[in-house]
Amino acid sequence: MQHPKGGPAPFFLTSCTSRLRDDALLTRALELFAAGHHADALLAAEYVCRRFPMKRIPAILRAKILQTGYPSLAARAWHAAWMTEAENPLLQDIMLQSWLKDGGRADVASLGPAFLPARCRAGQHASLLPILRTAGVAHTGACWTEGDAIEAMVFLGTSSAPAPRATLLLSDETTQYQFEIPGDGTRVRLSPPRPGAVWSLTLLQPDGRRQLLPGSPLAFYPAPSIRADAAPAATVAAAPRPVSIVVPVYRDLALVRACIDSVRTSLPLNHTPARIVVVDDASPEPAVSAWLDKQAASGALTLLRNPCNLGFIETVNRGMRMFDDHDVLLLNADTQVHGDWIDRLATALYATPDVASVTPWTNNGEISSFPVISQAAPAPDTRELALIDQTAAAVRAAPGGADIELPSCCGFTMLIRRTVLDAVGMLDGTALNRGYGEEVDWCMRARAAGWRHLQATGVFVAHEGTVSFRAEKTLRVAQNRGVVVARYPDYYGEFAAFQRNDPLFGARDLLRSALAQSRAAAWLRKAETAEYTAALPNTIAKKPIPANLPALASAYERIAVWRHDPLAPMARQVLALARTIASRPQLRLRLLILGGASDALLHTGVVDQVPALLGEALPLLDDLRLLQVAGCRAVLTASPAGLPSRVRPVLLDDSFDAAAWLNDWMSRNPGAKAA
Question: Over the range 245-255, which residues count as b (16 or more CB within 10 Å of their CB) and which as e?
């Protein structure tokens, strides 16, 4: 059945109704995939994925299509699908299995055990254990809190019958206890030796090695609360305090050394009294601990060491308690700093009496990211960092420079007023799991008491990002986001509005313009164009998407329209071309619109649209690769910006005649006619 305008009915009618289009396209994608028209199915699925980047069903369908059409992309596609619902056991298993097929045993062994606590607690762990065994995880387990007790399960990969006993070490900041439990996965219950503490469980493996049990640490103290007198005293101009620079350390000696060396170099350049407080969170790398011991012995820093890994939140809390009369400058161990950065942050913090915390610019720090908001970029080297930071300081000091209020600060570098810590409490490790979201929760507590948080636009700190967690970050964010939503239902809507409206745009643009004229211009260009992969598992990061992809099977020939703007003057030529194609039902031809599309254009029934990527989406196929997937024989555009030189587009201008051009194109491409 054919609609008078050319589109097949009834799908054509539903696809033209905006409220039905997404569901209709998803249904159509399933039908096309089943029929073997993989390019057509992928374009339909990609439209829905880009519109709803965190919806599970479209991402799963896209992964199935890509797994069939491009097996080398399966691991990446299933990773993107898993990111939409990181706590879904089925998606966890499928993703890990795809990684195994792609040679990613190390990634499976690293991330897979993190799924065990929730799955063991729910009795959904049976399918995960064989995957972990295949990845070489012979001995593992999980623990979790249950009321005022700890529950745990341990799986010793042994053929012995019965399974041997497992030895668990229960540790807090200073003390360690030993327990013997079954190693066959029996669910056991342990009573913490002391109430109100934070505990981690370590499995003593049969060969004597120690392994932190997933689910640790387990916190039993009350959730932090806001004191009755927590509100800022607006009439009191408090004086800056000495600063404890708290650096939680876990692994990667090169980054740790670079961070601490940069801080030590900067201390003489700052007037603010400051001490470096490093907390070694039971690093698995002896070289890290040995180097820290040497630095502590020389008096360069104060060193605390957890006998068992307590996770980021509790490690930071321990460091913040060390000098309880100091302000706290939380600094990730994968950062580097420059110059009088502490003084500039302190100036921002104490500019008004109601500021609780400040955070600087960085290359990788959510809304504080530069040069693009919420988009990570490669970290600058030491020379580039000095240029960028000095430029940021100069731009802030110039007329028009200002610090800007944020909904929350980002914890990679965050100067916190001690009086606010005393009033609203430390980071919450009881409800939040290990890391991510803890600074949001703290900032929202402070805001509830009347405090504000600022972007310190005169400071830039380099940040490598996701070094300790990598792909596990997605799971931690998913787990902790639910806590933040329950406590502050409006926060993520406010955060999204901040990203959309971007109050930092003016300050960022001033810094960008200044850097473009400086010796840091090369870094700026790199940062604006680089594809950043720090958050990706090594399985994916080390195997980038091929520059050229073969076209997938399709029922149509396609002509692409590059970066289409439905409000631009040339949009009328595109609409004329679509209507011309629709008027010739014998053609096996469609338009692929990359960008926006008007209702009139969609109503022709011969258009596939793929909107621009949203910031929240994990890109799988960019627009250039979609041209390859669809096998586009021609590319039309009013502006060729972004197209590689090998692509010779047809320019849309006032001289373009849709009917004449189509006739000429058809004479050279007779295959576009239906058989």
Answer: bbbbbbebbeb
pLDDT mean over 487-496: 94
Q: How many alpha carbons lie under 13 Å from residue 152 in its C-beta half-sphere?
A: 32
Which tokens hold the place of 394?
């100069």
Provide the sign of the torsion angle of the four alpha carbons 533, 538, 540, 544, taken in this order. Answer: positive
CB atoms within 10 A of CB 269: 12
Alpha carbons 656 and 569: distance in angstroms, whole number: 12
- Between CA 11 and CA 9 the distance in angstroms is 5
| Interval 577-599: pLDDT, tens | 999 999 998 999 999 999 999 99
Segment holding 165, helix H or strand E: strand 165-171
Per residue, the 3-state secondary structure of 88-99, as one string, reads: CHHHHHHHHHHH
**Angular region, 208: left φ>0, alpha ψ -120 to 50, beta rest:** left
Contact 189, 150 (CB under 8 A): yes
Contact 199, 172 (CB under 8 A): yes
Higher pLDDT, 541 or 31: 31
Residue listed under structure tokens 């009086």: 419
Q: What is the pLDDT of residue 238?
A: 74
DSSP state of 221: S
Contact 153, 126 (CB under 8 A): no
Q: Using CA atoms, how far apart are residues 387 and 341, in angstroms rounded to an integer?
A: 13
| Residues 554-575, mean pLDDT to the nearest whole number | 94
Q: Which of 391, 316, 382 is nearest to 360 (CA)?
A: 391
Asked whether the predicted pLDDT for residue 286 surpasses 70, the reply is yes
**pLDDT tens per residue, range 623-639:** 999 999 999 999 999 98
C-alpha to C-alpha distance for 319 and 212, rounded to whole angstroms: 21
What percentage of the chain's residues is helix, strand, coil (to nearest 5)? Answer: 40, 20, 40
- The amino acid sitting at 269 is L
Grade residue 278 by pLDDT with cuts at 50, 70 and 90. very high
Single out the residue of 354, 349, 356, 462 nearest to residue 413, CA to CA: 462
pLDDT of residue 161: 65
pLDDT for res 19? 58
* Structure confidence at residue 319 as a pLDDT band (50, 70, 90): very high
What is the model's pLDDT at position 480?
A: 86
CA distances (Å), origin 416, targets 145, 278, 331, 369: 30, 17, 11, 19
pLDDT for 160 beyond 90:
no
pLDDT of residue 393: 98
Residue whose C-alpha is closest to residue 573's, from 645, 636, 507, 506: 636
Model confidence at 669: pLDDT above 90: no
How are strands ordered across the β-sheet holding 139-146? 139-146, 149-156, 188-190
CA 425/CA 440 separation, integer angstroms: 13
DSSP letter at 437 equals S
Strand, coil or helix: 466: coil
pLDDT digit string, tens, across residues 110-144: 999 999 999 999 999 999 999 999 999 989 999 99
DSSP 8-state class, residue 224:
P
Element at 166 (helix H, strand E):
strand 165-171
Beta 139-146 vs 149-156: how paired, if at all? Answer: antiparallel
Distance of CA 482 to CAs 1, 215, 498, Å?
Answer: 48, 17, 20
Q: Are strands 327-331 and 302-305 parallel, antiparallel or unpaired?
A: unpaired
